Amino acid sequence: MNAYPKITMITSLIGDPTRAAMLDALMGGHALPAGELAYIARVTPQTASSHLSKLMKGNLIAVEQHGRHRYYRLASQEVAELMEMISAMSPPVQIRSLRQSQEMEKVRHARTCYDHLAGKLGVALTQALIAKGYVAIRSETEFDITEQGDEHFQSIGLDLTTMKVNRRSFAKRCLDWSERVHHIGGFLGAVITKHLFELKWIVRMDSGSRAVRLTEEGRAKLHALYGITIEDLG
Q1: Quick one: 109 and 217 in the same domain?
Q2: CB 177 within 8 A of CB 87
Q3: Using one digit for the tens of pLDDT, what is the confidence trace for 199-225?
Q4: Residues 114 and 147 in one domain
Q5: Is the distance from CB of 26 to CB of 32 less than 8 angstroms?
Q6: pLDDT tens string 89-109
Q7: What's the domain range around 135?
């Protein structure tokens, strides 16, 4: 008898193109209704309902009820990490249309990886924080904040000194699938990204897309604080 977990059950769920498209859309960190997921995956509402049911049974997604409406989200941070890891290991997508090319350019430039920042912007910010001495590589899987970094983050409104305790993954080194370089994930990545949204230095783009963009204020602030330029973002 095989006592190991049923890996094929999860891989078969993720491996279906329709379900993979839905899971990728939920990597934006927002809960989305079935109709929007059906539109993104280009299937009928009835087909989408069947796929969503299978993903729920596989514990890959969860549902939230708001009045008469149901919204779907990834079941956990672990599911998001699994999706990003698979993306990093997968071959590049074959671009077949101008629209697909434009969307790919957007998500490669800057996107949310569930709840933290990824793409060229996420990598550029991570490398700048390391270069400034605010963040250091702790191990093959983790970053850490330096004393200088604690002071810096407090100066921009983030007091992280009390947030490190009992965090299983405080500052995960997350391999960026488009840049093939690590960006900051985990709790720290989520806190930084949330703060950037609150400051309106970054804003979300189209509904159903993981792509985000720098505002003019955000561009000026990131350049002043970290020396990030347009050239760093390609």
Answers
A1: yes
A2: yes
A3: 999 999 876 678 999 999 999 999 999
A4: yes
A5: yes
A6: 888 777 777 777 877 888 889
A7: 98-233
- Distance (Å, rounded) from C-alpha 18 to C-alpha 24? 10
Low-confidence ranges of the chain (pLDDT < 70): 1-5, 162-168, 207-208, 234
> Is the same domain home to 66 and 115?
no
CATH number reported for the structural domain that contains residue 45 in this entry: 1.10.10.10
